[in-house]
Amino acid sequence: MAEVLRSLSGFGGVRHSLCHVVRPQRRAQLLHLLQGEAGPLLARGFGRAYGDAAQIESGHVIDMTRLDRLLDFDAETGVLACEAGMRLAEIDRLFLPRGFCLPVVPGTGWVSIGGAIAADLHGKNHDRVGSFGDHVQWLDLLTADGNVRRLDPIATPALFAATIGGMGLTGIIVQAAVKLQADARPAIAVRERKLTDLDALLLALQAHRPIATYSVAWVDAMARGKSLGRSILEIGEPAEARSTLKAAPARRLPLKPPEFVPLKWIGKGFNAAWPARIPAAGRDRVVSRERFFYPLDAVAGWNRFYGKRGFHQFQCVLPDERAADGLRRMLELTVRSRAGCLLAVLKTLGSAGRGYLSFAMRGHTLALDIPARADAPEVLAALERITLDCGGRVYLAKDSALSPEALAAMYPELERQRIAWAEIDPQGRFQSDLSRRLQIRETAP
Ligand SMILES: Cc1cc2nc3c(=O)[nH]c(=O)nc-3n(C[C@H](O)[C@H](O)[C@H](O)COP(=O)(O)OP(=O)(O)OC[C@H]3O[C@@H](n4cnc5c(N)ncnc54)[C@H](O)[C@@H]3O)c2cc1C
């Protein structure tokens, strides 16, 4: 199998590492690879983790995207078994006509089943259905000793909990079974409302939380003073498609920001023009699932918008009782520091995930793009401090800046994760730049 030396980075493009990349097509090649290789190893999906979770400097990265076969589907139970390189949007494309869909999808369709499990990702309906890992029935994990083990929550609870949200560090997920949601609808009826400030937004989110299927708020991260937290809240419900939907698929727009226009001006223009689409009383429309769930996939190469240095994405979750205070401090900080953050996304999360390192907890989750300028580390460190102060945590699938001390404080089950690692990978073969940066396997003295 061909091996290529490639510079890899996460979606934010901040850190680059030279990695030996292989792209197996068959499971047998994958098994052979593990037996033949002695150095550090890591699986990679579509590279949609923002930071350094899917790369390992000088190590072997196994691109799983060719291992993408459907293996079995039970229409009675809705359980789909497939290889780990299968793309989430592809599953919906194949199964929607049969009335099934994935219960949890992120903000892009370019995520693999392996990446979805390794990050234990959440969607816009976390209050209703939990995280991706909550719907995994079993998974086959290729471990450091070259064996494939079937993990499930009953027979192997500790290894299962260490792999769900375990960021690829217990081994390579080869295939998995996920329970699809029945009675899926092809479209989403969306109600968009403009909210004037953070208090209004939090009240509206709270009111919709027990009743809405999907909710997400797009926050103008440049608004200050009385307008701090000005936003558009989208509430979505599954719907039948209108005939016009078929004629209006998600557009793919090439994005080439003019280099001579400062980012700040582009951001101000965007944040002024974008809400203007929506009348003061709000707007109701029916859109395709693709447009509702994956709006940014329609803008080709948008992650290059921030320029060659790339950007960090900071995403935290704050417990409900500290959310108002913490979110206000975070938005004030990004405005005051002129961090160059244009837009923020706010969602609510329902309950903890199944993994020891699962990100979810009951609370509010805020995601902010921070351009990788000279002052970015300072801004990220301040955001980390507010998160810690509020008893929250940072999402590892987005992270590129967390400190090892903060990790231990934010993830109380880290020691249980370390015990599982000691059992399943005592030599520490599975590593990533993220695991090295966070000293994730090292027990505190
Ligand atoms: C535009 C955008 C929107 C997003 N929205 C959301 C969102 O709403 N909610 C959310 O939770 N996340 C979101 N994400 C993050 C994304 O869902 C996760 O980072 C996901 O893990 C990426 O999957 P991937 O297949 O690209 O994996 P990669 O980015 O390639 O890898 C991510 C991690 O998964 C591990 N991994 C990948 N495949 C395997 C495997 N087969 N076996 C073991 N480990 C594996 C890697 O080692 C790495 O640690 C978003 C990302 C983008 C770019």
List keywords for this structure.
445 residues, alpha+beta, Uridine Diphospho-n-acetylenolpyruvylglucosamine Reductase, domain 3, Alpha-Beta Plaits, 8-stranded antiparallel β-sheet, 5-stranded antiparallel β-sheet, 14 helices, 28% helix, 26% strand, globular, binds flavin-adenine dinucleotide
Describe the structure.
- An eight-stranded antiparallel sheet has the order 16-12-14-13-19-20-18-21. A five-stranded antiparallel sheet has the order 5-6-10-8-9. The protein has a four-stranded mixed sheet with strand order 1-2-4-3, with no helix packed on it.
- The radius of gyration is 21 Å and the shape is globular.
- The longest helix has 17 residues, at 320-336.
- The chain contains 14 helices and 21 strands.
- The protein starts with a strand and ends in an 8-residue tail after the last helix.
- The chain has helices at 27-36, 88-95, 113-119, 126-129, 157-163, 198-208, 243-247, 263-276, 289-293, 320-336, 376-389, 404-410, 414-424, 433-437; strands at residues 3-9, 16-22, 41-44, 60-63, 70-74, 79-83, 100-101, 136-142, 148-151, 172-179, 181-182, 187-195, 214-220, 231-239, 253-254, 283-288, 299-300, 311-319, 343-349, 363-371, 393-394.
- Helices cover 28% and strands 26% of the residues.
- The mean pLDDT is 92.
- With 445 residues, it is an alpha+beta fold.
- The relative contact order is 0.15.
- The chain folds into two domains: 70-183, 2-Layer Sandwich (Uridine Diphospho-n-acetylenolpyruvylglucosamine Reductase, domain 3), CATH 3.30.465.10; 187-403, Alpha-Beta Plaits (2-Layer Sandwich), CATH 3.30.70.2520.
- The site of flavin-adenine dinucleotide has 32 residues, from strand 3, helix 3 and strand 10.
